Amino acid sequence: MRVRHGEVLLASGFTGIMITLFLALKWAPSVSIDAFASPAAQRIFYWHVPSAWAAFIAFSVLFLGSALWVFKRSAFGWRLHVAGSEASLACGLMAVWSGCVWGAAEWGTPWDWTDVRLNTFGLLTLLALFLVLGRQSQPDGVESRDTFSTFGLYGFVLVPITYIATRIWQIRHPGPVIGGGEESSLSSDMGLVLLLGAISFTILIAGHMVMSARITEYEQRLERLQNKVDGRI
Fold it and tell me: In terms of C-beta density within 10 A (0-12 exposed, 13-18 middle, 19 or more buried), how is residue 106 classed?
């Protein structure tokens, strides 16, 4: 029996995420009551931070796929573009949703339009939404691929801006948890759960992108076969 790596990765990632959620709610220590207005709500960070981390990886794949298509006309690059845009949208929506839940509990509002990091990440998620819906609503062709890949290339500039935004313009959103220096230090138990979540989300989107690339390849094969059949009629 042929092993389907995409399905295995998806199942493994989903299992890891479920374990992460259980540990976040039942095992991980709580934060100081004095540091947060709603200490219990911080547990959603074990979902929020890993999903945002996975979204950045997905946006990187989207950028790479877009570059391969624009500069190399690579069919594999286009499959990466499609897979990266879909994974970016999924993880972006999860990060935005969980952030809004925490913001409503901690700040008293789900969104702060003056916070640079929130808005740049929101724009990234909207870009992914545009790419996914736009591709599904337009016939596949060189011109449409060029258009969507160009958006994927130029939109990537928001990724480093989003990551460093809280270091330059920290308003409400906390500083970086991953790679944020001494200010991002966590207790060993909290760091372990967060690491498990980051690994699980990474495995999940890897499986999703493998399956998405496979589906896109099948679609391209069917389109070529259809063109051959139409040419013979």
Answer: middle
Report residue 126: phi and psi, to 5°. Answer: -65, -35
User: Do 110 and 101 contact (CB within 8 A), yes or no?
Assistant: yes
Span 142-168, average pLDDT? 90
| pLDDT band, residue 32 (cuts 50/70/90) | low
Residue 32 has a CB neighbour count (10 Å cut-off) of 8
Sign of torsion, CA 166 167 171 172? positive
**Model confidence, pTM:** 0.86
Q: In the 8-state DSSP scheme, what is residue 65? A: H
Q: Is 126 strand, coil or helix?
A: helix
What whole-number distance in Å separates Cα of residue 14 and Cα of residue 174? Answer: 27
Q: Which two tokens stand for residue 8?
A: 């295995």
SS3 label, residue 174? coil
How far apart are the C-alpha atoms of 164 and 59, rounded to whole Å?
A: 16
Nearest CA to 101 out of 43, 147, 158, 145 is that of 43
Residues 6+ apart with CB under 8 A from 13: 200, 201, 202, 203, 204, 205, 206, 207
The stretch 178-193 carries a mean pLDDT of 63
Q: What are phi and psi of 125, to 5 degrees?
A: -65, -40
- Residue 44 in contact with residue 106, Cβ under 8 Å? no
If we measure between CA atoms, which residue out of 204, 201, 217 comes closest to residue 51?
201
**In angstroms, what CA-CA distances link 148 with 119, 140, 190?**
22, 11, 39
Tokens of 4: 């389907």
